[in-house]
């Protein structure tokens, strides 16, 4: 895979990766030109208000950084703070959890944008309150499945699974609870009498904390205009689990 990198003479180092791949690059009178498919293009044109568009193709800007203070300690990452002129979409990854923050979920306080981290979105991680046992299937009729008892932690819109050996099989999304009968919207895998069932809630709301030794953050912006970031910070507390 080809990569396009830029070098800054001012900082004397490689500063960024770029998505566009030109056929040729040159500099003239301190201006940067490229050639693509026989066409000449001027880059960094201040008179052009549209950013992130190269050779007629729009790209997004991405910034990636890692928070790794006290790398031997497990930490819980509580929030994300952007010092800049606008919020960005954020993807969060640690050594064993993952999450995301939408740009709309940031709140502005003076010159900073604040957002608390949501829960771990890795559906294979059963820490937290996202997974609850339902019981063994006693019988089923159409989309209605009967159990001996249904606990009060089971809710409408949970996804109902059955455990067939070591395989998790999605039965469907719960749309009704009545006594010891669960009704799902559409049968995806046919319920089998005698198999144990459990439900999964929205991991982003009910999952475990965003925790790990480090936090990798990728910010993404799709705006056409200028976007400025001065700093990115997070608040982390030591995990004692």
For the biggest β-sheet, the strand order reads 15-21-18-19-20-17-16
Helix content: under 10%
Computed CA radius of gyration, to the nearest angstrom: 25 Å
Distance between the termini: 41 Å
Integer tally of domains: 3
Question: How does the SSE layout of this entry go?
Answer:
Elements: E1 4-8, E2 13-18, E3 24-28, E4 31-36, E5 39-42, E6 53-54, E7 57-58, E8 61-67, E9 75-77, E10 79-84, E11 89-93, E12 98-101, E13 107-109, E14 112-116, E15 131-136, E16 139-141, E17 144-146, E18 159-164, E19 167-178, E20 181-184, E21 196-200, H1 203-206, E22 211-212, E23 215-221, E24 229-233, E25 236-238
Antiparallel strand pairs: 1-2, 3-4, 4-5, 6-7, 8-23, 9-22, 9-25, 10-14, 10-24, 11-12, 11-23, 13-14, 15-21, 16-17, 17-20, 18-19, 18-21, 19-20
Explain this structure to me?
- This protein has one helix spanning 203-206, and strands at 4-8, 13-18, 24-28, 31-36, 39-42, 53-54, 57-58, 61-67, 75-77, 79-84, 89-93, 98-101, 107-109, 112-116, 131-136, 139-141, 144-146, 159-164, 167-178, 181-184, 196-200, 211-212, 215-221, 229-233, 236-238.
- It has 241 residues and is mainly β.
- It has 3 domains: 4-59, no CATH class; 62-123 and 208-238; 131-201, Thrombin, subunit H.
- It has a 7-stranded antiparallel sheet, with no helix packed on it. Strands 8-23-11-12 form a 4-stranded antiparallel sheet, with no helix packed on it.
- The radius of gyration is 25 Å and the shape is elongated.
- The two termini are 41 Å apart.
- The model has no long low-confidence stretch (mean pLDDT 92).
């Amino acid at each position: 895979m080809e990569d396009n990198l830029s070098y800054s003479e001012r900082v004397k180092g490689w500063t960024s990766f770029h998505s566009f791949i030109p056929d040729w690059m040159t500099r003239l009178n301190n201006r940067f030109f490229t050639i693509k498919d026989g066409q000449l293009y001027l880059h960094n044109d201040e008179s052009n208000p549209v950013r992130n568009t190269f050779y007629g193709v729009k790209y997004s800007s991405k910034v990636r950084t890692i928070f790794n203070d006290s790398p031997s300690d497990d930490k819980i990452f509580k929030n994300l703070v952007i010092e800049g002129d606008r919020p960005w979409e954020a993807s969060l990854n640690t050594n064993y959890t993952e999450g995301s923050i939408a740009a709309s979920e940031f709140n502005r306080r003076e010159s900073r944008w604040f957002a608390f981290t949501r829960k771990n979105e890795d559906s294979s991680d059963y820490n937290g309150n996202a997974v609850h046992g339902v019981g063994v299937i006693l019988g089923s009729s159409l989309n209605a499945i009967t159990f001996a008892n249904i606990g009060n932690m089971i809710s409408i819109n949970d996804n109902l699974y059955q455990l067939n050996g070591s395989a998790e099989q999605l039965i469907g999304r719960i749309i009704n609870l009545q006594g010891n009968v669960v009704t799902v919207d559409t049968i995806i895998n046919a319920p089998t009498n005698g198999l144990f069932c459990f439900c999964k809630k929205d991991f982003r709301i009910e999952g475990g904390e965003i925790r790990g030794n480090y936090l990798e953050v990728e910010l993404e912006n799709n705006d056409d205009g200028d976007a400025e970031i001065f700093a990115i910070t997070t608040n982390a507390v030591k995990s004692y689990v």
